[in-house]
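Bumping with the actual sequence this time:
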Amino acid sequence: MATPYVTPAMITNAPTGISWSIIPFPKSTSGQQFAEQTNICWRATQIVDGYVNQVFRSTIDNEERSGPGDFRVNVEQDTGVVRWVLTRSPVTEILAVQTSSAAVFPRQWTQVPQGMWDIEVPLLGVYGSYVSAGSGGGGGQAILIAPGYAGWGLGRQGYRLACSYLNGWPHAGLTADVTAGGTTLTVDDVTGMTGANLVIYDGSATESIHVASVTANSNATLPNGGGTVPAGPGTLTLSNPVLFNHAGGVPATVTVSAIPTDVLWATVLAATTQALDAGITSVSIQNLPGSETVGGHGIQELVTHYELLLEPYKRVI
């Protein structure tokens, strides 16, 4: 099972003013509190994904589309390069590309060789660097395919194109303990982790890491003979040892993530609104511009705040 974007520790330690000890009800046990806080984390995760109309965590996506001839698949006139605007962003890795005549059934797919494609606008600060991503809606959703594999030769909408790709930011939960000096982490999802810069979110023991390689318990099989790719639970091998001890578990209480920090804060605010909407009527919340701060006021201000944080990430086409 995957891990929500934030954990109970992250929402209860955040400066929101919520008295989390009375969630789900006054005098509830610590186990009951943790269970409901975990549920709130999941609901908040679904809220932020729903607002931007796509998932933030790294996923494997398989798309097919006919072209050229519309705004999503077209050919650059001077170069013959095919430009395909995929559905989800940011595209972080192209796994496989195939083409077929649109008139042929069943499809006779031709594999486009590795290196004959590019991400038009690569995501900054996650791969190929030791600097972790901070915030902002960077990265694009268009890919470029070399001339000769599709074009106008078969007419408008004459080709059927298929693409398997990774989108989003790697995110997982730590499922086994690791001690300071260790170089391997056991996590619940290795999707998109190879070569990534991540943060282990663990309170005062929070630290940055770089993933050298991954080993998945089982690989995902791509369609149309596109091969396999690591996904799901597995192990991360790090470029450098961790500095602190970290406790793993199921459900995970420590996350390993490249999701931008403004998205994490938006998720915390979404969790806070869930707690307030659950019926708490006499808690104070942090001052926000234009907000009333006591007695149940401020829910809409929190909603507006997290929506503004998420606005750069919204999928609009």
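The tokens above came from a reply further down the thread. The first helix runs from residue 8 to 13.
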